């Protein structure tokens, strides 16, 4: 076996290792059955258990209400301004 071929093989091995490491970053352990699953999955492919994907943040219902309230306030204010302008300029 020539030295060059050996080097190439080593490089290939390293590349495979790197790829595996990258993949491992996205692996999480299923809390239901302990299987390795990908972090973006919402369901375990082994046991079907529900998973919380990484980066997923449940929407705070209180905040949601606040945003909705602000949206309503802005909408109503815009309508009032519009009515006032129509009255003023008619
Ligand atoms: Zn599972």
Sum up the structure in keywords.
about 90 residues, mainly alpha, two-stranded antiparallel sheet, 2 helices, elongated, binds zinc ion
What does this protein structure show overall?
With 90 residues, the protein is mainly α. The protein has a domain at 59-90. Helix content is 58%, strand content 7%. It has helices spanning 3-25, 61-89, and strands at 27-29, 36-38. The chain has a two-stranded antiparallel ribbon. Strand 1 and strand 2 form a beta hairpin. The chain is elongated. The N and C termini lie far apart (94 Å). Bound molecules: zinc ion. Zinc ion binds next to loops.
Q: What is this structure, in a nutshell?
A:
The protein has 90 residues and is mainly α. The chain has a domain at 59-90.
The percent range for helix content is: 55-70%
Which structural class best describes the helix and strand composition?
Answer: mainly alpha
What ligands are attached or bound here?
Answer: zinc ion
H/E element order: HEEH
Point out poorly predicted stretches.
none
| Rg from alpha-carbon coordinates | 28 Å
**Strand share of the residues?**
5-15%
Shape: elongated
- Strands of the widest sheet, in order across it, are 1-2
The count of helical stretches stands at 2
Q: Largest sheet, described in full?
A: 2 strands, antiparallel
The pLDDT mean sits at: 89
Count of strand segments: 2
Distance between the termini: 94 Å
Topology:
Blueprint: H1 3-25, E1 27-29, E2 36-38, H2 61-89
Antiparallel strand pairs: 1-2
Bound molecules: zinc ion.
Zinc ion (ZN) binds next to loops.
């Amino acid at each position: 076996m020539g030295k060059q071929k050996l080097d190439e093989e080593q490089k290939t091995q390293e590349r495979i290792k790197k790829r595996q490491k990258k993949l491992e970053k996205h692996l999480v352990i299923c809390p239901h059955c302990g299987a390795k699953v990908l972090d973006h999955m919402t369901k375990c492919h082994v046991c079907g258990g529900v998973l919380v994907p990484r980066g997923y943040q449940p929407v705070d219902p209180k905040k949601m209400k606040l945003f909705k309230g602000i949206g309503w306030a802005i909408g109503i204010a815009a309508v009032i301004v519009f009515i006032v302008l129509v009255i003023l300029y008619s």
